[in-house]
Design goal:
Length: 317
């Protein structure tokens, strides 16, 4: 009989295509680049905040005090540049670890100036895993003159680790709910109160509340159903590691869960909403390969049209 621990090890280190890990590098790095670029004014603005507002968290405790304006600006701009190198797979053995460290620092530094947010934690963790893995062995600048290597264990375990981290974040969120309200959280009152308080705070601060929250708050049974579904989704997240249709079904429900949070509380988790958080659960190289073929066909059609137009132009002359 096969020992369960050996079977688990074989599954964990099951070979995977190098292109699949490369696809995750492109997706995670591309998302990080867009995330940083769209928030660049906000991130740079922390250089001008008063030092009394700085409460160091995580890795920023190594510093203990705010960075100077020049140092913070340099780190922010460097992180954006490293995101480009990371995504393209340029000098990956150096640029990837530097990017992972810089991203972790920058996101933690941002949270040290305000209420800690958890919307970016999974992005930082995925970047760290990819920085430790050979994610530039295919579809990268470093591998531009080489054919993609065959499937191997080295490309498989990072996928499983990233998927496990995604699932673990949901499990921890479910455990946190149980610590706050116990099994009573499933009755829906905690969730209903949270939605009510969040929207009331928006009104008091001059923001627009959710148009759905007020009418839905009148129906307690809806929040009981949502609370039960939420706990089942979060605590049952490890089933997604089975893969296939089970993973697809769970990811679709998790994505819908985040859409619901936006609709009821206007709280956005960009990484899951973009779908990148769930990419390690699937063959992420397939849509990118399809997109690559489509772009190649468009270029060939454009080249063919240009070539056919040349004789006509010569005839006109």
């Amino acid at each position: 009989m096969t020992r369960p621990d050996l079977a688990l090890l074989r599954w964990w280190f099951r070979p995977a295509p190098a292109e699949r890990l490369a696809a995750l590098r492109i997706l995670v790095g591309g998302f990080a680049f867009l995330y940083l670029i769209t928030r660049l004014p906000m991130l740079l603005g922390y250089a001008d905040f008063p030092a009394r507002d700085f409460v160091p968290l995580g890795v920023t405790r190594l510093l203990g005090h705010p960075l100077g304006s020049g140092a913070h600006t340099a780190i922010t701009i460097a992180t954006v540049g490293l995101a480009v190198l990371f995504t393209l797979g340029v000098w990956y053995r150096v640029s990837a670890p530097l990017f992972a460290v810089a991203l972790l620092w920058l996101l933690t530094y941002r949270n040290s100036w305000s209420m800690p947010f958890h919307t970016e934690n999974l992005l930082a963790l995925h970047a760290i895993v990819l920085a430790m893995a050979p994610a530039a062995a295919a579809w990268s600048w470093d591998a531009r003159r080489r054919a993609a290597p065959p499937a191997a264990e080295a490309y498989g375990w990072p996928l499983r680790l990233m998927a496990a981290i995604t699932c673990l974040t949901y499990v921890l969120a479910g455990i946190a709910k149980l610590r706050v309200g116990g099994l009573g959280w499933a009755e829906g009152e905690f969730l209903r109160d949270q939605v009510a308080v969040d929207n009331l705070r928006k009104v008091l601060l001059g923001s627009d509340p959710s148009p759905l929250a007020t009418p839905l708050l009148e129906h307690a049974w809806l929040f009981e159903a949502m609370a039960i579904t939420t706990l089942a989704l979060e605590l049952g997240a490890p089933v997604a590691m089975i893969g296939g249709r089970v993973a697809l079904g769970w990811a679709a429900m998790a994505w819908g869960f985040h859409v619901g949070i936006v609709a009821l509380m206007a709280i956005v988790f960009p990484y899951p909403l973009a779908g990148v958080a769930y990419a390690p659960l699937f063959a992420a190289e397939r849509p990118l390969r399809w997109l690559g073929r489509r772009l190649a066909n468009l270029r060939l059609r454009g080249a063919g049209s240009e070539a056919s137009a040349q004789p006509e132009r010569r005839h006109e002359r």
